[in-house]
Amino acid sequence: MKILYFASLKESLKISNEEMEIITNISVRELRLILISKYGEQYFPSNILCAVNHEIATDSTQLNNANEVAFYPPVTGG
């Protein structure tokens, strides 16, 4: 699957995307745990936003190798 990183997350990780192959389908939450073990929990807090194939996803959304998954920090402003 293709994983995309946006905004400050992209800057912090110093990559904009990566490819990851999974053997069985996993949930967004499971993918987030894999990425936490790879990069650190500070980059993937519980409020990080995720989209799968250009649609907002939840932690229970199921993923496979054909998916495009995007992570981006929540937008703040005033």
From TrEMBL:
Name of this chain's protein: MoaD/ThiS family protein
Gene3D superfamilies in UniProt: 3.10.20.30
Membrane-spanning intervals of the chain: none
Highest taxon of source: Bacteria
Signal peptide (residue range): none
Source species taxonomy: Bacteria, Pseudomonadati, Pseudomonadota, Gammaproteobacteria, Candidatus Pseudothioglobaceae
